[in-house]
Every structure is written in structure tokens, then in C-alpha cells.
Amino acid sequence: MVLMGFRLRVCLVLLATTFSTIVLVNSFQLQKFDVTNRKHLTALEGYGGGRSSNRYTSNQDRSKRQERVGHVVRTEIASIIQQGFSIKYADFIDDDLRRRINIVNANVSPDLRQARITVSIIAATKTKPTDSESDDEDLEEGEQIFASDITVDQRRAYSWLVRSTRMIRHSMAQRLSHMKTIPDLTFVQADVGAAVDVMKLIEKVNQGYKRENIGTFGGGDDSLPEGMYLEDEFDEEDGWLDEDEDEEEDEDELDEN
């Protein structure tokens, strides 16, 4: 009986020890799993998990800064071009054309070192003769001052802007001395006419406009565009003769003689 009681005690001790060991091992594994998960979550945060909001906020701040600097650059360039006298060593341009240069937009790069300036040239208005001029005998029909060709004005104004880019930037740097960096300027023309045509076409399509017939050359019929002709339309009556036919006629005349 004593031996059996001793064996029972030993078995109970072994069971208790085994159970304690199992509990310790499980708790250790749980702690290890928790640490691993924390490291994994930290790594995910580094790739945009927890810092995505910070990155989004940074992008928002950057875009706001670009917009703010672009607005300042646009305002200053418009003021410089309208004043004219503040541009040193710039090529000559008549005041009327210079004042018709409109600064549409200033798009600044993320590093604030480049600025794309979009400009448009306003068409000149037509002026009418005054009453005194109409009463003058020498000006019976009145003095006619036509609006200048907008295409020529656009070329002249844009060429002047390109040649005066460095001077305009230098003048802007003097006015914006509080800024750390002054962006390099690149002027581009805004094709306002093409944009208006596209808007009109979109409006027509929205209203149900549809072309009934489209010709071979894109017009309403198959007629050729103005100034274009087919080779078959040139005949001998128009003075167009084939050189081979001329040589054959000369050979026939020689044989007859």
C-alpha cells in the first residue's frame, strides 16, 4: 500500500510538471507571435499603412504651395508686362500690343524651379473716325483704322516674350526678393480659338447635331478642296503637254520630211 501511494504521488508530480511545461511553452509562443505581429505592422506602416495619411497631407501641402507660388508668379508677370518700363534691356514692342498680352495661367513644378506660363493675345479693336475727321474735306470717307491681324500680333508678341524671358525673370526676382528661388520661365501660347471651336462642336453634338453626308475629302460632298486639282483635269488646252507626246510628234514630223 505504501508503495502504491508513493507511485501515485510520483505520477501526480509528473502530470503537474508536464502541465506547467505546456502552459509555459504556450505562453512563450504567444509572446513571440505578438512581437512578430508588431514588427510586421510596423513594416506595413513604413509602406503606407499608418503613414498614408501623413503622405497624403504632404502631397496636399505641396499642391497648395505650388498653387500659391503659381498665383504669385502669374500676378507679378502680368504686372511687369503691363508696366513695361521695369523690364531692362528688353527688345522694343509697341505699347498697345504689349498691353494686349494676357497671362492665362502659371503652372509651377513640384520643386518650384520651373514655371510654365500660358499666354494669349487679345485681338485689337477697330476704331471709328471722329466727327471732326468726318467733317474735314480731306477726310470725306473718314480715316479707316483696321484691326491688326491677330496672327501677326500673336507671333510678334510671343517672339518678344521668348527673347525677353531672362529680363522678365530678372525683373521678377527683384520684385520677389523674399522668395528663396525664382522659377525659370517658359512661355507657351494658349490656342483659345481652337478651344472655342471644340466647345461649339461639343455644344452642337449635345443638341443632337449630326452631319447628313460626309464627302471623300471631309466636306459636305465629294468636291475637292479649294486650290486642289486632279491630274486628269490638266489637258492640252490648258497648256499642259506630256514631254513624251512632244517627242513623238517631233519624230513624226521628221519622218514625213
UniProtKB/TrEMBL annotation:
Region of interest (Disordered), ranges: 216-257
Any matching Pfam family: RBFA
InterPro entries the UniProt entry points to: KH_dom-like_a/b, RbfA, RbfA_dom_sf
Any one GO biological process: rRNA processing
SUPFAM superfamilies per the UniProt record, alphabetical: Ribosome-binding factor A, RbfA
Sequence ranges of Acidic residues compositional bias: 229-257
UniProt name for this protein: Ribosome-binding factor A
Organism of this sequence: Eucampia antarctica
